[in-house]
Amino acid sequence: MRKTVRELRTPARILVVDDQKICRDLERAFLEHLGYDVIEAADGDTALALLREEWVDLLSTGINLWPEMDGIELARRAREQNPDLKVLFVSADTRIERLEPRDRDRFVPKPYTLRQLKDAVADAFSADHEPHERSGERRHDGG
Questions:
Q1: What is the mean pLDDT of the chain?
Q2: I need a labelling partner for 36 at 20 to 30 A (CA). Which of 13, 81, 122, 127 fits?
Q3: Measuring CA to CA, which residue among 22, 42, 44 is closest to residue 111?
Q4: 126: closest CA among 86, 79, 76?
Q5: Which string of DSSP letters, residue by residue, matches 23-43?
């Protein structure tokens, strides 16, 4: 992967995907309060389009999204675009056995507290994580 033209450290960017606006708004408010840069999508197709255009450090998605794909499929497709993408599932659906084994520890059940979300996001970002360098809003791939 190529470095961006302007090397600028920014807060980690999180893409919140939930088909319920009130849930997106709440999660966005919590994450922004914690200092993260947040973008959002109401469905998987919109999320995938954003992931093609913008760098994201963490995908936070529900499991049961409507109408075209669920969060599990979204995570699979998103990782095809960016294999290093960190994924957090935030959902009222607690059947985590449906998730890939690597994702089962990255789950926050709804309803959740700010502390639960904060801890889960911090867990997703390992100690060696630093937000990617960005120039503007576009994602920069090598090639």
A1: 84
A2: 81
A3: 22
A4: 86
A5: HHHHHHHHHHHTT-EEEEESS
40 belongs to a structural domain: yes
Q: H-type helices in 60-106, by residue range?
A: 71-81
The CATH number linked to 23 is 3.40.50.2300
Residue 96 placed within a domain:
yes
3-state secondary structure (DSSP) of residue 52:
helix
Confidence at residue 114, expressed as pLDDT on a 0 to 100 scale: 94
- Count how many domains the chain has: 1
Query: Is the residue at 78 inside a domain?
Result: yes
All residues at 6 or more sequence positions from 102 whose CB lies less than 8 Å from its CB, including other chains: none
Residue 129 forms part of a structural domain = no
- In this structure, are residues 79 and 96 in contact, taking their beta carbons and an 8 Å threshold? no
E strand or H helix that includes residue 107: strand 107-109
Question: Where in the sequence is the domain holding 77, given as residue range(s)?
Answer: 13-112
